[in-house]
């Protein structure tokens, strides 16, 4: 049996290593003294060296000391392991052979067949070198050299951020960089590559004479970022070359010139600054276009502009642990700039709506805000500026909100129990042009505003149509309604409410509630010609101040019946609610800005008011009744359903008495007995969920509205399908049904590879027909496909790759192109090296299709 022996250098370090058995005092003294003296000469504190091995061999002839058998050396936070470690006293060199491994103080692991190092481990050579960093990146070379413990040179080395294949470690990784020399400088935290080749699965695909990149420990460092490649009929071919300038740990600058073959150089500058209590960014971009004629002329494009650009800024700052303020603002020379040049900050592009009047919808929202939150209170104040970014948006009808303020506070009153809440809202806004909406039809089509409204001819179809609205001669309540009046309007609202739930001995639950609310509106209408002067046709513009109040008292009743069976648990719960209030007053005098969205369904059947905002309130005495059934299966599945109806028992029906926006009409609530609403959700297992929401006519049970969704996950397959159908709403100027299907699927072929696809179908063909009408010609067979997307991708610990094909009518309509836009997007990201992407944008006819990237 070989006796285990320990050698320690300094008495102060013995306890950290373990017991020490001296085999040859002079040898141990020489070894440790040399290392200690070297550290002291460098001005360092006295270092400690410890050696652990099965056997210690001293060769006086060669003047060496060898630790043999599972040798381990501890020094300056480094750990050197090998089958045999030899110290050459004469040349101050350390040799490690056989399964050599050195673990740095930062956790980095260096492997080699043979180490030849100085006695402080900082300099030397390593054969068959492999380095695994703590960030899971890997360097390999036949031979490497360490200098000063700071620089490592890999001769004929390779680098990758991919882990080795578990089944076959000798198999080439997904990607690697092979170079004649790889130089890693720890102090600079930079890796330099000379005569480099990028390989995928061992196959070279790109040669780069020289480049450098931050090592895996760097989160931010000055240098060039991955380029972006561009292809567009409107701006030509080009490349963006971003340069990131890390000026300080808390602020930086990114310069991104984009060189375009058709339009010149697009400049982009972004400044980011982090402070103690927050951070902010400022970004500016612009271009002097070499060929403005590549874009459509107004009103469909910016073909008349030489210079185009934008400025954006975002910030968020903490005042204390409860209050925060900030801003998110943007401005551009024209509303097509973002879509034509597709900046990464442009996030307001919504999906194509196959079911609504508006086909494409884009906007830029600028806001400044102040928010505070306590344990049971909340405050939010915001100002808004909306900028429509589609050709179909008329900026003058967009309101400027200055501001909207919300306050909410909850209490638990000791004398009556329950919950007492106080809500307050202040909304003030200005609009320069009245937003009219047409109600009549012209040859089966709702008429729209022409480019020059003063020259509008209702029977002419030669001029391009821009906006869905009325035109001169049509500004009367029987032909138009007002979505938003011109002028300045300020409303203040205060609401106090209380509720408490009681459970009687039979298990019935009773929730009485009461509330009191008051509103005051200050209005200053703008009656300037040529369009605002028609406002008196729709509401009284003489009242400068309008008051409104609404007390309410009511109770909600529930009585759940529970039955346990061998299949699961059944719960049947009748629900009834009655609310007594006076009639709503000053309908139409209180301008409706925030309560125009009204969808009557299961989610608001038992709401005390079904209006979505403060500008309208439900009045009269109303009863809401329904029944809910829930079945919980033993396997975790469930079935949940609800069916109910609302009744106007007494007083004025608020939903049958429209305001300027005609909100409430065709809602299913505008009759004494409302339409029926239902919901059913079935989840037989955790992998399948089916949901359907419907509204049926209260007289003949005709289907007025239906939304159905199915989601499923079976192993690697995930699917979703949504179907919606909405009946016409002629009282709101919508004379056609809206019907569509949206489907999506994702299949994981392997843990890393996947394919995806989605289709949006306009079953009513409303979107396609609308598109051709706007373009000024008829189509014999309009396409009913709203959008198609097909894609495939790969993702693992070191690589992200995806390719996506998109075909959408939305881009054509919003950007004024004559044909559908088809786009292919290619994205590749290599961890620690960056990424690159490419996009090809095609349309059948050469138009202003904009840039799509990358």
From TrEMBL:
Domain of life: Bacteria
Pfam families the record matches: LptD (PF04453)
Leader sequence residues: 1-22
Keywords associated with the record: Cell outer membrane, Membrane, Signal
Task of the protein: Involved in the assembly of lipopolysaccharide (LPS) at the surface of the outer membrane.
Quaternary organization: Component of the lipopolysaccharide transport and assembly complex.
Protein name (record): LPS-assembly protein LptD
Gene assigned in the entry: lptD
């Amino acid at each position: 049996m070989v006796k285990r022996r320990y050698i320690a250098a300094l008495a102060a370090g013995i306890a950290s290593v373990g017991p020490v058995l001296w085999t040859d005092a002079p040898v141990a003294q020489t070894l440790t003294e040399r290392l200690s003296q070297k550290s002291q000469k460098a001005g360092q504190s006295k270092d400690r060296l410890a050696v652990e091995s099965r056997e210690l061999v001293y060769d006086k002839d060669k003047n060496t000391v060898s630790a043999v058998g599972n040798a381990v050396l501890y020094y300056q936070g480094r750990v050197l392991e090998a089958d045999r470690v030899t110290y050459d006293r004469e040349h101050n060199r350390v040799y490690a052979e056989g399964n050599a491994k050195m673990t740095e103080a930062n956790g980095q692991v260096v492997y080699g067949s043979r180490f030849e190092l100085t006695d402080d481990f900082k300099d030397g050579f390593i054969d068959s070198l492999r380095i695994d960093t703590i960030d899971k990146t890997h360097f390999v070379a036949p031979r490497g050299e360490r200098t000063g413990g700071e620089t490592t040179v890999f001769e004929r080395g390779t680098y990758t951020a991919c882990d080795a294949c578990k089944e076959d470690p000798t198999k080439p990784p997904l990607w690697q960089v092979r170079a004649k020399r790889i130089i890693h400088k720890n102090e600079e935290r930079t890796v330099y590559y000379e005569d480099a080749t990028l390989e995928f699965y061992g196959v070279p695909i790109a040669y780069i004479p020289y480049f450098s990149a931050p090592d895996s420990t760097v989160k931010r460092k000055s240098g060039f970022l991955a380029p972006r490649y561009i292809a567009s009929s409107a701006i030509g071919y080009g490349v963006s070359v971003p340069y990131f300038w890390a000026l300080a740990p808390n602020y930086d600058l990114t310069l991104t010139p984009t060189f375009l073959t058709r339009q010149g150089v697009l400049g982009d500058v972004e400044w980011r600054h982090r402070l103690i209590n927050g951070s902010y960014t400022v970004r500016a971009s612009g271009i002097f276009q070499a060929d403005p004629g590549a874009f459509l002329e107004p009103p469909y494009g910016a073909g008349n502009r030489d210079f185009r650009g934008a400025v954006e800024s975002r910030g968020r700052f903490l005042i204390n642990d409860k209050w925060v303020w900030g801003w998110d603002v943007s401005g551009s020379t024209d509303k097509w700039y973002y879509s034509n040049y597709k900046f990464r900050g442009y996030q307001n592009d919504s999906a194509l709506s196959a079911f609504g009047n508006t086909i494409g919808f884009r906007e830029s929202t600028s806001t400044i805000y102040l928010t505070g939150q306590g344990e049971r209170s909340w405050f939010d104040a915001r100002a808004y500026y909306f900028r429509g970014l589609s050709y179909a948006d008329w900026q003058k009808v967009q309101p400027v909100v200055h501001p909207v303020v919300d306050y909410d506070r909850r209490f638990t009153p000791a004398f009556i129990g329950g919950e007492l809440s106080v809500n307050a809202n202040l909304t003030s806004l200005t609009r320069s042009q009245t937003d009219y909406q047409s109600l009549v039809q012209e040859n089966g089509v709702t008429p729209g505003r022409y480019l020059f409204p003063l020259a509008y001819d209702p029977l002419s179809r030669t001029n391009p149509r821009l906006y869905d609205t009325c035109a001169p001669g049509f500004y009367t309540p029987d032909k138009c309604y007002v979505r938003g009046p011109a002028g300045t309007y300020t409303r203040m609202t205060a609401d106090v409410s209380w509720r408490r739930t009681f459970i009687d001995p039979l298990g019935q639950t009773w929730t009485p509630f009461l509330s009191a609310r008051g509103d005051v509106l200050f209005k200053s209408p703008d009656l300037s010609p040529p369009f605002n002067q028609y406002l008196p046709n729709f509401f009284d513009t003489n009242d400068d101040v309008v008051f409104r109040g609404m007390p309410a008292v009511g109770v909600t009743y529930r009585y759940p019946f529970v039955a346990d069976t061998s299949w699961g648990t059944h719960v049947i719960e009748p629900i009834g609610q009655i609310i007594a209030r006076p009639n709503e007053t000053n309908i139409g005098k209180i301008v409706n800005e925030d309560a125009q969205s009204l969808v009557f369904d299961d989610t608001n059947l038992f709401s005390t008011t079904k209006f979505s905002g403060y500008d309208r309130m439900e009045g009269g005495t109303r009863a809401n009744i329904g029944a809910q059934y829930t079945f919980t299966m033993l396997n975790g599945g469930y079935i949940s359903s609800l069916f109910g109806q609302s009744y106007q028992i007494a007083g004025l029906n608020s939903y049958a008495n429209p305001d300027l926006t005609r909100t409430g009409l065709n809602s299913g609530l505008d009759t004494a007995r409302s339409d029926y609403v239902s919901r059913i959700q079935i989840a037989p297992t955790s992998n399948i969920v089916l949901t359907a929401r419907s509204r049926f006519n209260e007289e003949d049970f005709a289907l007025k509205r239906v939304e159905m969704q199915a989601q499923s996950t079976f192993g690697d397959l995930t699917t979703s399908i949504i179907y919606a159908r909405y009946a016409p709403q002629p009282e709101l100027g919508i004379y056609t049904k809206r019907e569509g299907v949206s489907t999506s699927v994702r299949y994981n072929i392997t843990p890393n590879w996947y394919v995806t696809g989605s289709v949006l179908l306009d079953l009513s063909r409303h979107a396609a027909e609308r598109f051709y009408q706007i373009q000024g010609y008829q189509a014999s067979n309009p396409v009913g496909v709203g959008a198609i997307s097909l894609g495939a991708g790969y993702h693992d610990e070191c690589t992200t790759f995806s390719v996506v094909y998109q075909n959408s009518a939305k881009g054509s309509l919003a950007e004024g192109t004559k044909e559908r836009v088809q786009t292919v997007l290619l994205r590749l990201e290599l961890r620690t090296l960056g990424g690159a992407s490419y996009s090809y944008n095609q349309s059948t006819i050469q138009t202003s299709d904009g840039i799509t990237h990358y």
